[in-house]
Design brief:
Elements: E1 22-23, H1 29-66, E2 76-82, E3 85-91, H2 99-115, H3 124-147, H4 155-181, H5 188-219, H6 225-232, H7 234-256, E4 264-265
Antiparallel strand pairs: 1-4, 2-3
Helix pairs in contact: 1-4, 1-5, 2-3, 3-6, 4-5, 4-7
Length: 267
């Protein structure tokens, strides 16, 4: 039954069709492929031309920030060939865990592994993530407890891995994000803007994370190198990429929900 308001006007025009069986009309495989290739070539070229500058600025800014909490002459910016160009990173002497620090960390990690899975008032996914971080840290604790003299890494090796991984992530963003945005009937300049925003966010976030990682490894211990990289490293990049993409798609769907010419029925 169609309701009428007090003025007698028909409200049928305010009722939208259910979107369960609506999908965006396809622009065609050829069109999507060309768009993906063009955007990838554009952003891939931008990343390739600018990643030496981006890593250099990241290293310089990180050194300036870290100079407030440690002697500047202990921080050295070095470069390394990568993908026929150069990447820049920070080198410094790190810190091995002392016996007391290692023991306290081991006890806290054990408590986290025992208590967190039994907590019912935290989301299951968050509890699983915390438990995974604790498990990795436990392995690191056991390694330093029995084989600390065989630890093969230092700040330089960690920096190389971090910076090179960050550059690879920028290339992946340049390819994956345009591919994910291609099916949506929005202006190509809007897709360029979203991809560029995610890339810019990745550079800024990567710099801030790099500063925090170096501070922990140099001021506290190499003990946290594994959990820092495997828990807060590339896995976290997927979170903000998916988050920004999902927000954009939500805004697009909300804007187009009443525009019936942008949809077609799936039956």
């Amino acid at each position: 039954m169609v309701k009428e308001d007090r003025s007698g006007n028909d409200e049928k025009g305010l009722i939208f069709y259910h979107r369960a069986y609506r999908i965006f009309p396809s622009g065609g495989v050829r069109r999507h492929t060309i768009e993906i290739l063009l955007l990838f070539l554009l952003f891939g070229l931008i990343v390739y031309l600018l990643f030496p500058l981006a890593t250099r600025l990241t290293s310089y800014f990180s050194k300036q920030v870290l100079s407030y909490v440690m002697p500047p002459n202990t921080l050295q910016i070095i470069q390394k060939p990568f993908l026929f160009r150069h990447v820049y990173m920070i080198d410094r002497i790190g810190k091995f865990p002392g016996a007391f620090f290692l023991l306290i960390t081991l006890i806290i990690t054990l408590l986290i592994m025992i208590v967190v899975p039994r907590l019912k008032n935290i989301p299951k996914s968050f509890g699983t993530w915390i438990s995974l971080a604790a498990a990795i840290n436990m392995i690191s604790c056991l390694f330093f407890l029995f084989f600390s003299n065989r630890f093969p890494y230092d700040i330089r090796i960690f920096s190389e891995l971090y910076v090179e991984t960050q550059v690879i992530i920028w290339f992946l963003i340049a390819f994956i994000v345009p591919m994910a945005l291609a099916p949506f009937p929005v202006n190509i300049f809007l897709k360029i803007g979203v991809t560029g925003f995610i890339l810019a966010y990745s550079v800024i976030f990567g710099c801030a994370r790099y500063i925090i990682f170096l501070y922990i490894l140099t001021k506290h211990s190499y003990l946290f190198m594994a959990p820092l990289f495997f828990i807060f490293g590339p896995l976290v990049d997927s979170v903000y990429i998916i988050g920004i993409y999902s927000l954009f798609i939500s805004l697009v769907a909300t804007k187009m929900k009443g525009v019936m010419t942008k949809w077609r029925w799936s039956y």
